[in-house]
Amino acid sequence: MAPHSPLGPIALAACLQVDAISYNAFIQEQTLGIHYNQSNDVLDYIVNRDVFQYLEGYAAIPRGLGLGIEIDEAHVIERAKEGHRWRNTIWRHADGSFAEW
């Protein structure tokens, strides 16, 4: 199993919990600190920013109530006021040709 979860802290926390009980989980996608999320990182939306711990390629399973994360509701409300104009990034090779993600 290889869950896809680049969308936010709730998705990542939920996937990690499923990974923890799945005997066939072998890889977990995540986008912490990735280049296309610089102004909108996964950690920006949670209070307990240290909950997602990685060491030598392994992820710690968040502990605590529910999924183990605490959402920063004030930050979510502020970001919601801004709205968004998200569009899929068009990636190009050095020669200008279209590139997949």
From TrEMBL:
Q: Where is the Enolase C-terminal domain?
A: 1-74
Q: Note the Pfam families from the entry.
A: MR_MLE_C
Q: What name is this protein filed under?
A: Enolase C-terminal domain-containing protein
Q: Which organism is it from?
A: Rhizobium glycinendophyticum
